[in-house]
Write a structure and sequence with these properties.
447 residues; binds pyridoxal-5'-phosphate; alpha/beta; 14 helices; globular; Aspartate Aminotransferase, domain 1; 7-stranded mixed β-sheet
């Protein structure tokens, strides 16, 4: 890295038990005022952060392998983001772009047109959250095609609004008891190399998906197919080579809008601006969110101009979408990714993780597979000697890690995948220290 933006030493330091006394006091207050539906992974209340370290209210320095689920890709509280956001906050905080526009919105749309895959005219809409981006992509695809059906892959996560819950695979805890959900939404088979029949290729998995679409939905009825190039909440599932190419060709042949949901994997995290670039595929629409604005709420749908422009003026939008402060932060994020070579840093993180934890499946009997791309890693936990998911092992590992100052995430349809989404600025020393803590938990699970 060119210069150090860190205001906190990049090391783990535990000075109280975790959660500490101040966290416990805040948690007691929380139980009286906050819905239990907003469940938390670790009841450790954070005060500030820098780079890959979070500092809690008791002064503990914690290694963050979660980034608030993939958001602070460029590191916590980067001074350049703070400066850009505060300068904008002092200048103009809101007009609503669809009432009276401003340039930041244009600059973000121009940059998105440049960095998303595809050499054609692209237009964008800016919104507030990932789920809102997905919802808008559904509306746009339906309007463009005049069709109703929407397909999402098994193990997908597309959000928690009513429409995106219908596109999200697992019932618990995201959907249970909160329906009914909209119709004409279909879950179709994906490619999950660890769980597919041995030797199944990406092309064969795509043929299975296409057969399902043809027999359950009808290709001519399908408006859009949504894919995550790397499934995040699904458990860092990376489809086999040829899967997306075959599906994308099928979509093109049949007038189906191919949507790459890059909300978790996009914006440099996978070692490319967008993770679909790791395949020979150009999506029609791309959704971005999470890492796009360094923690400020912003999301986007970007894609072929003729598809994006199918919607009548006033058909898409919203009060806060593309807010001046969030867009200022996003412009600073784009600058940092380029000036600090953060796509290369994501590749460095990938190499460092594989070098440190790549042999866990050989060393620990509860580890079925270690997989990853860029700064996205999944460790699938199983019952020894089988591929049977092991959610109890995941709970034990997460409990040990959090109580020792390492934030890690859960994932997977069976809640059995340990997920790492660290900042791309994380050092090899922190990766090593975090891995050592997690290894203690894995060792304790050995029969
Ligand atoms: C791939 C994907 N799509 C959509 C969403 C929903 O984004 P948000 O939580 O910002 O609504 C997420 C969030 O985790 C995601 O990972």
């Amino acid at each position: 890295m060119a210069s150090s933006p860190f205001t906190v030493s990049q090391e783990r330091k535990i000075v109280t038990e975790l959660p500490g006394p101040k966290s416990k006091e805040m948690h007691a207050r929380r139980l009286k005022t906050v819905s239990r539906g907003a469940g938390t992974l670790a009841d450790i209340y954070m005060d500030h952060g820098s780079g890959a370290i979070l500092v809690d209210v008791d002064g503990n320095q914690i290694i963050d392998l979660g980034c608030g689920i993939g958001v602070t890709t460029i590191g916590h509280a980067h001074p350049a983001i703070a400066a850009a956001a505060s300068a904008q906050a002092n200048k103009l905080t809101h007009t609503l772009f669809t009432v009276t526009p401003y340039e930041n919105y244009l600059l973000v749309a121009e940059k998105l047109a440049e960095i998303t895959p595809g050499d054609f005219e692209k237009h964008s809409i800016l919104v507030n959250s990932g789920a809102e981006a997905v919802e808008n992509a559904v509306k746009i695809a339906r309007k463009y095609t005049g069709r109703r059906a929407i397909a999402a892959l098994d193990h997908a996560f597309h959000g928690r609004t009513n429409l995106t819950m219908a596109m999200t695979y697992r019932p618990w805890p995201e959907r249970a008891g909160m329906g009914p959900f909209p119709g004409e939404i279909y879950s179709v088979p994906t490619s999950y190399p660890f769980r597919d029949p041995e030797g199944m290729t990406g092309v064969e998995a795509a043929e299975r998906t296409i057969d399902y679409i043809t027999t359950h939905i009808g290709a001519t009825e399908l408006a859009a197919l949504f894919v995550e190039p790397i499934q995040g909440d699904g458990g860092i599932v990376i489809p086999a080579e040829g899967f997306f190419e075959t599906l994308s060709a099928f979509c093109t042949e049949n007038g189906i809008v191919f949507v790459s949901d890059e909300i978790q994997a996009g914006i440099a995290r996978s070692g490319a601006w967008y993770a679909i670039e790791h395949h020979n595929v150009v999506p029609d629409l791309v959704t971005s969110a999470k890492g796009i604005a360094g923690g400020f709420p912003l999301a986007a749908v970007t894609g072929r101009a003729e598809i994006m422009d199918a919607v009548q003026p006033g058909g898409i939008g919203g009060t806060f979408g593309g807010n001046p402060v969030s867009t200022a932060a996003a412009l600073a994020v784009f600058d940092l990714i380029e000036s600090e070579n953060l796509i290369e840093e994501a590749k460095r993180v990938e190499r460092a993780f594989f070098a440190r934890i790549g042999d866990w499946a050989e060393r620990f009997s509860v580890v079925g597979e270690v997989r990853g791309k860029g700064a996205m890693f999944g460790v699938e936990l199983v019952h020894p000697g089988t591929t049977k998911p092991n959610p109890e092992a995941l709970s034990a590992v997460i409990a040990h890690a959090t109580s020792n100052g390492v934030i890690v995430l859960d994932a997977g349809s069976w809640d059995s995948v340990l997920r790492f989404l660290p900042s791309v600025v994380i050092s090899e020393e922190l990766i090593d220290d975090a891995a050592t803590v997690i290894e203690q938990a894995l060792q304790a699970l050995e029969p």
